[in-house]
Design a protein that fits this description.
Strand 3 (about 100) and strand 4 (about 105) form a beta hairpin. The chain has about 260 residues and is mainly α. The longest helix is centred in the last third of the chain and has 24 residues, at about 175-200. The chain has a two-stranded antiparallel sheet with strand order 1-2. The protein starts with a helix and ends with a helix. The chain is built from twelve helices and four strands, in the order αααααββββααααααα.
Length: about 260
């Protein structure tokens, strides 16, 4: 019987210009189907990759984060696989561990963070001009995966969290409430899944968005408090979808809880 994962990989392979090897695809499918351990899957998923095959490496990561978009229920499992890959023996040439842009094979999960970030950035712009519900759901799922990655400690992704909140709460979306529906739901994932890290990180490590800059011209406010004020406004805005109002309220409650806990 064909599983949802077999069907997904078949569709992905038919539509993508560059794809992971058949062995790599099957390794991921078997892992998601609970047929193999994370360690076994990591070895099979990466066995065809060499430092001379950057494109094949990118294809592996592309397949994995497409899975993150399609299957949010498997996020923890996908992160377990990434952790297993990062623990594989290093790839060496001439006695030295191979690096790509300073990231070691495999402990540094080379090119994963940069490729995922580029893809997420592209999705931010793409959904502004495309209203298909599935695209917006997948954007929320991908943002949730990013938040879980940060919470897991695999990568230091504080700037990703800051960028997400900046895009969502430090810009104005007048006349586009449906876009705010998606963005609020996406940003909330960082509070719900990596809230402690977001609260404790240096929130001025990234440039301030235009709405925050405009506010700062007239009054002093911390970035965290500005986010809270924007969420509070969304919570009571009758022009916003009720589910989005509720999500804003839930996110605001979580932020205030983080403050109380210190």
């Amino acid at each position: 019987m064909t599983s949802i994962y077999d069907a997904w990989v078949a569709r992905f392979t038919a539509e993508a210009e560059e794809v992971a090897s058949a062995d790599g695809q099957q390794a991921l499918v078997d892992f998601l189907n609970r047929k193999t351990s994370a360690r076994e899957a990591a070895e099979r998923y990466t066995c065809d990759i060499t430092p001379a095959k950057d494109m094949e490496l990118i294809c592996l990561w592309t397949l994995l984060y497409d899975g993150a978009k399609k299957f949010p229920q498997d996020h923890e499992r996908l992160i377990e696989l990434l952790q297993a890959i990062s623990q594989l023996p290093p790839v060496k040439e001439h006695g030295e561990t191979v690096k790509v842009y300073g990231e070691e094979y495999w402990s540094g999960l080379p090119m994963l963070a940069s490729e995922l970030r580029d893809h997420w950035d592209g999705q931010v712009d793409y959904i502004r001009h495309h209203s298909e519900p599935i695209l917006h759901r997948e954007f929320i799922h991908l943002t949730a995966f990013n938040a879980r990655l940060w919470a897991s400690g695999i990568f230091e992704l504080s700037k990703w969290g800051l960028m997400t909140f900046s895009i969502v709460l430090e810009r104005n979306y007048d006349g586009k409430p449906q876009l705010l529906d998606t963005y609020i739901a996406a940003a909330s994932q960082y509070v719900l899944l990596a809230g402690r890290k977001l609260y404790q990180c240096d929130k001025d490590a990234l440039f301030h968005g235009p709405a925050l800059q405009e506010f700062e011209e007239h009054s002093q406010i911390t970035r965290w408090d500005f986010w809270k004020s924007r969420l509070a406004a969304v919570k009571v805005d009758d022009g916003i979808w009720e589910n989005t109002q509720a999500t804003a309220g839930q996110t605001l409650d979580c932020m205030e809880k983080l403050e109380r806990e210190g």
